Amino acid sequence: MDISEWERHTLMADDAKTNNNPLMSIVHYQIALSIAQEITADSTDTEQLTDLLTMKVVSCHNMANFWRQHGDPDYELKYLQLASEQVIALIPQCKQTQCHSYINSLGCCQSALISFLKRHPNPAIANQVKAINNYSSCELIASFKLH
């Protein structure tokens, strides 16, 4: 995966923002987001998937920050929601919607979310949840346990 174009446009957007050129800033942030959305990764390479997710989320946050600074909360929210969707797409979805640990807004149970957070690219977040037993409240997993 070649991220040099994404990095170049992100840096050009940051430079334009520093030089008080909002038009060029938003253009380059949007190009960086487009590049991040078009790149595909080998689904078996965890490092590649993490890099790609980071690029997508950073691009969305850059766009949200731009719109926040320019007083448009509607666009800010749209880009924050897009970032959230990028992350949620990687959390395993569960069909056990009646499970008491199911989280409607995420489409998964608590154990899938905790498992995902344990693999979070930010070590500070991963360390906060590392001691949580992520299988204790999943009804699907509990149904396979031997008594």
Helical residues, percent: 55-70%
Largest sheet: 2 strands, antiparallel
The ordered string of helix (H) and strand (E) elements is HHHHEEHHH
Distance between the termini: 47 Å
Principal-axes shape call? globular
Q: State the oligomer.
A: single chain
Q: How large is the radius of gyration?
A: 19 Å
Strand order of the largest sheet: 1-2
Structural class: mainly alpha
Q: Quick one: how many beta strands?
A: 2
What is the overall pLDDT average?
77
- What fraction of the residues are assigned to beta strands by DSSP? under 5%
Helix tally equals 7
Q: Residue ranges: pLDDT <50 for 5 or more in a row?
A: 140-147
Structure in a nutshell:
With 147 residues, the chain is mostly helical. It has helices at residues 4-18, 22-38, 46-69, 73-88, 110-118, 123-129, 139-142; strands spanning 102-103, 108-109.
